[in-house]
Amino acid sequence: MKTPKTSISAREIFAQNLRRARRLKDISQEELALRAELSRTYVSEVERAMRNVSIDNMEQLAIAIGVPLRDLVSPDLFAPLEDRISSKK
Question: Does the pLDDT at position 89 exceed 90?
Answer without folding.
Answer: no
